[in-house]
Amino acid sequence: MKYLRMENLDLAGKRVMIREDLNVPVSAGRVTSDARIRAALPTIQMALDKGAAVLLLSHLGRPVEGEPDPQYSLQPVAGRLSELLGRPVRLQADWLGGVEVKPGEVVLCENVRFNKGEKKNDEALARRMAVLCDVFVMDAFGTAHRAQASTEGIVRQAPVACAGPLLSRELDALRKALHDPARPLVAIVGGSKVSTKLTVLETLLDKVDQLIVGGGIANTFIAASGHDVGKSLYEPDLLHEAQRLIQRAHAAGGSIPIPRDVVVAKSFSADAEPLVRNVDQVRPDEMILDIGPLTAIEYSEIIAGAGTIIWNGPVGVFEFPNFAAGTRAMAEAIERSSAYSLAGGGDTLAAIDQFGVTDAISYISTGGGAFLEFVEGKTLPAVAALEAVAR
Ligand code: ADP
Ligand code: MG
Q1: Atom 26 of ligand 1 has which residue's CA nearest to it?
Q2: How far apart, in whole angstroms, are the C-alpha atoms of residue 71 and residue 284?
Q3: Tens digit of each residue's pLDDT (9 = 90 or more) over 138-155
Q4: Which of 347, 354, 355, 374 to mutate to test the pocket of ligand 1 (most atoms within 8 A of CB)?
C-alpha cells in the first residue's frame, strides 16, 4: 500500500484542498459535538504551517443534491472551526466557479452534497473541483469507503493527490492490528445482528487466534448450538451460517465459545429485573440481554492473554445499567491489558465513552462503516485511488 503523504509534500504557496469529515451534529445553528472538527485541526494547522492556501471540503447530513438547504449549511462548522483555529474561516457558498484564497487563509467550501453528481461520483463534477487546487488531500477516513466526487473522483483528477495525516494514521493503525498483529490476536464481535456482521465474522475467523461473540450475535450462535433462546433477539435465518462458522473454527483447530451463562429479563426495558441463568436454562418468556458473570470472567481472561485486541460491538444492552455489566467487563479487561487494542463502531464508541476507558484503547477508529469494510478486507475506493495515482 503506497500513496503520497501530506507530511512529505512541499505545500508552500500552493492551493491545498483538504477533504475532511466535518459532518457534525448541529442544533439551532450550533455545533453540539465538535469531536470531528477537533480531529481535523492538526491537518489544517500543518497545511497552514507549510505555507498553504487552504480550501476545505466536507459533507453535512443528507441534503437533496442540487438543492442547497440552509438546514445543511456548513456555516456553524465554519464558526466553530474559526474559534478552534484562532483565525477567520470564510464559508464560501458558490465555489465551483473559483475561490479566492491566499497562503495562510482558510476557506470552507459549502456542503459538497449540495452539488449534483457528488454521490454518483460524477466525473465532470470531480474535474471542476480538482482544477481549484494544486494539491488534493484526502483526510476523511469515515467517507473513504464511498466512491464519491469529493472523495474518489477528485483524487484521480487532481494535479497531485495525497493522504492527510488523520487518514494515514487511521490506515496505519488498522493495518498494524489486522495484517501484522502481535499474537495472540483476539477479536470481540458483539452488537445486535449477525446479518450486518457476517462478512466481518467470516474474515476475522481467518485472521484471529480467538473470536469471541456477544450481544444479539451470540444469541444466534447460542440458538445454533441447540439451546432455547426464548424471546431473545436472534436471527433464525442465520442459524445455518452460525453453524457453518462454528464448524469452520473447529476445522481450524479453534472454537467460537458460546456464553456459559447469560443475564435474562422478561421485557426489553431499563427497569426489567435481571436474572442470571445457565445458557441452557433460558425460559420461553425470557430474553437474553447480557453475558453472565462467569462468561465475563472467562472472556476477560482471554482478553488478558491477548497481544492484540479488536473490538466491535457491545456484548449486551449496555444502554440499560442492569444489562451493562458484560460490556463493562470487556471494556475494563481491555483497559487492564497491555495489548495493542483497536475499537470501532458507533455503539462500541458510546460504550467506551460510557465506561471511561477511552484513554486505555490504543486506537479508536473514527469511521463506523469504513472501519467495518476495512476489517472485512474490502478495498476502500478513495484509498485505492490514492494508491493508483501514486504509481
Ligand atoms: P456497533 O455500532 O458498535 O457496530 P451494533 O450497532 O452492531 O454495534 O450493535 C449495538 C446494539 O446492540 C446496542 O444498541 C445494544 O443494545 C444492542 N445489543 C447488544 N446485545 C443485545 C442483546 N442481547 N439483545 C438485544 N440487543 C442487544
Ligand atoms: Mg451501531
Answers
A1: 192
A2: 48
A3: 999 999 999 999 999 999
A4: 347
